[in-house]
Design a protein that fits this description.
With 124 residues, the chain is α+β, with helices and mostly antiparallel strands. Helices cover 35% and strands 34% of the residues.
């Protein structure tokens, strides 16, 4: 049964675009990360959403932290590079970078995203 599901999952086409979600401790750090992602052509747009509270377990304690959420639009082929950029520039020991595919949307917006974020270069 597991083999069946793996086969079904692998036959699904990979979407061209994805969203990444990253939390940051404050708006200033989020703006710094967002600026690096956009100027580095790893993201077309980053929305910074203030006023979230994250509740999680860390080192055996339940934590409640005020954070901001970054919603990052990019090409699926650039997720690995985007994740590495965030890991190198984020203040947390374990930063959140989770992604989901964009299955559809406003065609002019997706066309703009495609023009703004180049495909990952394939190394020969």
């Amino acid at each position: 049964l597991i083999h069946f599901y793996k086969r079904m999952a692998s036959s699904r086409p990979v979407e061209e675009f994805s969203m990444a979600f990253v939390t940051a401790p404050n708006a200033d750090k989020a703006k710094e990360l967002a600026g690096g992602l956009v100027s580095g052509k790893l993201a077309a747009c980053v929305n910074i959403i203030p006023g979230i509270t994250s509740v999680y377990e860390w080192e055996g304690k339940i934590e409640n932290d005020d954070e901001v959420l970054m919603m990052i639009k990019t090409r699926t082929s650039r997720i690995e590079e985007l994740t590495e950029f965030v890991r190198k520039n984020h203040p947390y020991d374990v930063c959140e970078v989770i992604t989901t595919s964009i299955e559809g949307g406003n065609k002019p917006y997706l066309d703009w995203l495609a023009k703004t974020v180049p495909e990952k270069k394939i190394e020969a």
